[in-house]
Amino acid sequence: MTAETSQTLDRGLRVLKLLADTDHGLTVTELSTKLGVNRTVVYRLLATLEQHALVRRDLGGRARVGLGVLSLGRQVHPLVREAALPALRSLAEDIGATAHLTLADGSEALAVAVVEPTWTDYHVAYRTGFRHPLDRGAAGKAILAARQGLVDDPGFTLTHGELEAGASGAAAPLLGVTGIEGSVGVVMLSDSIPERVGPRVLDAAREVADALR
């Protein structure tokens, strides 16, 4: 800690991070041990966070992340979209296909940014807000591959006809971005993906990941 930082705020943020990393919640004693502070401090931190709905405690006394984080999370998508747009524009223009940034949202893949090429006669209409199961389509499958630690050479996923008849997709996961599960990809009207597209999508995913770090 430096003179310019707040110890209490730091501890509160650490509480939220610890709770976010567990599915079953943590007790006051467990938080006290992990933070290296006494139980009284933990009680005060939890009480404050509860007032803002950022933490809730179940009947057993275990603390969990509260629904208040959702209102904060809604502001994340515009920030992520803004950071990704330059790489997506470059990708769409280079490949001549609709480029997109997709994030995991529960069991679904959610398109949060879409850029269509300006010079093609036709392209796939793919809209921001489009949802589909994570286990269908290149975007979702790339996210699942990263989640399962299965991302290796070549590092991108190719699919055909899984979301729209006659359309093929290529996507690569965002790697090394804390708190975000996502992928960058393209979708095109084609029976197969040209050879150069996969590596180009992989480069774009790296660009977006760098912009988000």
From TrEMBL:
CDD domains membership: HTH_ARSR
Domain HTH iclR-type: 6-67
Pfam families referenced in this protein's UniProt entry, alphabetically: HTH_IclR, IclR_C
InterPro entries the record matches: ArsR-like_HTH (IPR011991), GAF-like_dom_sf (IPR029016), HTH_MetabolicPath_Reg (IPR050707), Tscrpt_reg_IclR_C (IPR014757), Tscrpt_reg_IclR_N (IPR005471), WH-like_DNA-bd_sf (IPR036388), WH_DNA-bd_sf (IPR036390)
Keyword tags: DNA-binding, Transcription, Transcription regulation
Domain of life: Bacteria
Keyword Transcription regulation attached: yes
Domain IclR-ED intervals: 68-213
Protein name per UniProt: Helix-turn-helix domain-containing protein
Organism from which the protein derives: Streptomyces polyasparticus
Upper lineage: Bacteria, Bacillati, Actinomycetota, Actinomycetes, Kitasatosporales
